[in-house]
């Protein structure tokens, strides 16, 4: 089968013929239809410092996908050939304290699809049945392909109740924009998203944010004044991983404000901890999705009319992967999709 492979410890990916993966009694073999390009995939392609520490070559990359079940193992009872499925890309041990308590998203032994084991940028991928999400209601294939990052957005956005609240989102990447759509759908009063990319801010406007703010030209304090906010934002969703964004968010939160942080900083940085203490700010770190509560929330949001189509800005055949990755790396696009269904 064809697959995108990090073949050697150097920049780039190769489209190669590799053996079709074998599935065991508890596994599901999936024919891949669409995949989404993630920032993780960009790091692996660039072979940056993180990738050099995390990746053992050769490796089939990719973890965002939708596909059709081609075969199931003898012990699989709740997934059938022909089902349309996406996959939870965090494979957990099932034996640690958190797994046994039902907190699988907190498993300390998590292995990432397309990072710690062969992934989904291929004609076929294998997952344990316990990691397979069956789409029981109608969903667009491109949207189904990005359920993984949509889950990151939902997990972050629903960390704190947003009904009637004023929400600040720093970072208008695809996940930040999806989170904005979620909190707007969930009844937030004002939703402000910040970035320096005019293209991404325009995508954010298409999902209905109250204000898409270019922080290279305006401050968050300006946004508060424009919206008539007197005491700051109730909820912050930090999606950028940028030190200046975190500091600006802290400066513009109301006392008792709550912040969910998904953005991953490249390095350590200082913040004003006295402000966090004195203003009684709650900060919650977010990684991945709650298994599978977040997935149920995603399905219900889509069934309820949440429209993610503005977030998808490009679709390529898998043979054109270099052009697709180049566009995804510009930091001006939304989600980029690879089509594996010839």
UniProtKB/TrEMBL annotation:
Keyword terms of this UniProt record: Cytoplasm, Metal-binding, NAD, Oxidoreductase, Zinc
Highest taxon above the source species: Bacteria
Residues noted as binding Zn(2+) 2 in the record, renumbered to the chain: 93, 96, 99, 107
Catalytic activity: L-threonine + NAD(+) = (2S)-2-amino-3-oxobutanoate + NADH + H(+); 2-deoxy-scyllo-inosamine + NAD(+) = 3-amino-2,3-dideoxy-scyllo-inosose + NADH + H(+); 2-deoxy-scyllo-inosamine + NADP(+) = 3-amino-2,3-dideoxy-scyllo-inosose + NADPH + H(+)
Pathway where this protein functions: Amino-acid degradation; L-threonine degradation via oxydo-reductase pathway; glycine from L-threonine: step 1/2; Metabolic intermediate biosynthesis; 2-deoxystreptamine biosynthesis; 2-deoxystreptamine from D-glucose 6-phosphate: step 3/4
Residues of the Alcohol dehydrogenase-like N-terminal domain: 24-133
Active site, per annotation: 40 (charge relay system), 43 (charge relay system)
Site (Important for catalytic activity for the proton relay mechanism but does not participate directly in the coordination of zinc atom): 148
Enzyme Commission no: 1.1.1.103
GO CC terms in record: cytoplasm
Cofactor annotation: Zn(2+)
Pfam families reported in the protein's UniProt record: ADH_N, ADH_zinc_N
Binding residue positions for Zn(2+) 1: 38, 63-64
Similarity comment text for this entry: Belongs to the zinc-containing alcohol dehydrogenase family. DOIA dehydrogenase subfamily.
Role of this protein: Catalyzes the oxidation of 2-deoxy-scyllo-inosamine (DOIA) with NAD(+) or NADP(+), forming 3-amino-2,3-dideoxy-scyllo-inosose (amino-DOI).
Subunit description: Homotetramer.
The name this protein goes by in its record: L-threonine 3-dehydrogenase
Biological source species: Streptomyces montanisoli
Gene name of the record: tdh
């Amino acid at each position: 089968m064809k697959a995108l492979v990090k073949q050697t410890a150097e920049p780039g990916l190769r489209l190669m013929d590799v053996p079709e993966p074998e599935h065991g009694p508890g596994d599901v073999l999936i024919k891949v239809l669409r995949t989404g390009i993630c920032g993780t995939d960009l790091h692996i392609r660039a072979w940056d410092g993180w990738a050099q520490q995390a990746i053992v070559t050769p490796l089939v990359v990719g973890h965002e996908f939708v596909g059709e079940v081609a075969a199931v193992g003898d012990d699989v009872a709740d997934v059938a050939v022909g089902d349309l499925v996406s996959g939870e890309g965090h494979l957990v041990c099932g034996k640690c304290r958190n797994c046994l308590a039902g907190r699988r998203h907190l498993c300390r032994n998590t292995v990432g699809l397309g990072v710690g084991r062969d992934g989904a940028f291929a004609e076929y991928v294998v997952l344990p049945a316990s990691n397979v999400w069956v789409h029981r209601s109608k969903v667009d294939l491109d949207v189904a392909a990005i359920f993984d990052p949509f889950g990151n957005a939902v997990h972050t956005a629903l960390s704190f109740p947003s009904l009637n609240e004023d929400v600040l989102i720093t970072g208008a990447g695809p996940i930040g924009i999806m989170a904005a759509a979620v909190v707007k759908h969930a009844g937030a009063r004002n939703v402000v998203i910040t970035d320096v990319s005019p293209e991404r801010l325009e995508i954010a406007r298409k999902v209905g944010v109250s204000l898409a703010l270019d922080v290279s030209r305006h401050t968050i304090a300006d946004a508060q004044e424009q919206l008539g906010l007197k005491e700051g934002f109730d909820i912050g969703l930090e999606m950028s991983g940028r030190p200046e964004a975190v500091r600006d968010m802290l400066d513009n939160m109301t006392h008792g404000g709550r912040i969910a942080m998904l953005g991953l900083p490249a390095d350590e940085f200082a913040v004003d901890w006295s402000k966090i203490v004195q203003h009684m700010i709650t900060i919650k770190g977010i990684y991945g999705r709650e298994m599978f509560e977040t997935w149920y929330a995603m399905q219900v949001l889509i069934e309820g009319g949440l429209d993610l189509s503005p977030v998808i800005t490009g679709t390529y055949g898998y043979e054109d992967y270099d052009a697709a990755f180049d566009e995804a790396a510009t930091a001006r696009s939304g989600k980029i999709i690879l089509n594996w269904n010839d």
